[in-house]
Amino acid sequence: MDAVPARARGFVAAVALSAVLCLLPLPVAHTPWEATALLAALYAACEHAVRRRFGGTFYPVLLAGAFLLPPAAAALVPVPAALLSPVEHPPALLRRVWRAAQPALAVWAAARTHRALGGEDAVLGSDFPSALLPAGAAVLAFCLVLTALDGGLRAAAGLVPLRRAWRGLLARSPAPVAVHGLAGLMMAVLWRSPYGPVAALLVLLPMGVSWWVFALYHRERAAHQATIRALVQAVDIKDGYTRGHSERVGHASVLIARELGMDEDRVEVLRFAGILHDVGKLGVPTRLLRKDGPLTPEERRIIELHPEYGHQMVRGISFLGEARAAILHHHERLDGSGYPYGLAGDRIPESARIVAVADAFDAMTSTRCYSRARPVEAAVAELERCAGAHFDPRMVGALVRALRRSGWHPAVTADEPAYGTAPAERTPSTGAPR
């Protein structure tokens, strides 16, 4: 308990007190206790199964409670699940209180919104089209409360500055919660129909299957990320001069791709391309990567094999898609003077042309053991000077426009702050390490 900041404990206590106040107007004689208990037990079972097998939270039963029960009774539905669920990290009591209070407030707000808009009568009359508007408003209220409380806890715990505590939280929640809300509405309508609660439970079957598929997707995505992290860490260990460079090239590649209007799936692939562009250095002798002084022609030829090594390493990783071509061709130049195959113009894959610009830009704006970082303006001027010969002017222009909006914050990537002769290779125009 002592490890949790006092402000965070105070925030959780305030949220818990607010949840208790929501329960005070509970009319004991007129509360549908049987339905409340059944929904609470069902939610506890679903939460246990979902958290244990897939991770995450399962909201359809909670939202069905918001559509079926009075607000105070609906606020009781998540409490047993939160208080009885296992807690993996201390402090257990504080976490249980938070898990109970946060959804209790959210479902109470949803139920109040739903009733205020006449949703109870629409559900009771099985008037499904008319029930959509109050249900949608209830789902929005549910999302807003969850988001407000999540952001408040992040700020109170000191995890992020107050001005950034809610950034991005609301944008991620409406779509999945809306699907859960639709399932909850279907449960509520069937519950009030002549078929009763048993028919309502059938709604959970397709939801369970879809949740399982969704969880498998996220597990696969997590495995992809772990694979990439392992490869990048291996490169960083082998070549300390470029530590952190891969992640920044991935970020710059994303800036260019988004500026060009590419869809998010392709943007993600280009992020992978930027992060893994130098993975082939694992096949280059460490003594060459860390050599102090100029390389011999033979040593340069060995280092120039690293794009091919990288392509061989990742060609069996199907989820990388066109990132594999970027890894192979990111040292090609528009005028045909690059390597490994001397491709020119449009024969160079678009992904490789993006990563080439991102790579050169970060190399110029990062402090290395053999050179100080150039100002962003100087690096941009150099890229523009080489556009059309070494770099694709479209990609250079996209990066310049993105930098005007978001800026750039180069970091020291070398282990040592000393400056001297350049180890390894540099291109004549940009000084970017190769």
TrEMBL record:
Keywords: Membrane, Transmembrane, Transmembrane helix. PROSITE patterns: HD, HD_GYP. InterPro entries: Cyclic_di-GMP/3'3'-cGAMP_PDE, HD/PDEase_dom, HD_domain, HD_GYP_dom, HDIG_dom. Residues 414-434 are annotated as: Disordered. Residues 242-364 form the HD domain. The chain crosses the membrane at residues 60-84, 131-149, 169-191, 197-217. Residues 220-415 form the HD-GYP domain. It comes from the Bacteria. SMART domains: HDc (SM00471). This is HD-GYP domain-containing protein. It comes from Streptomyces argyrophylli.
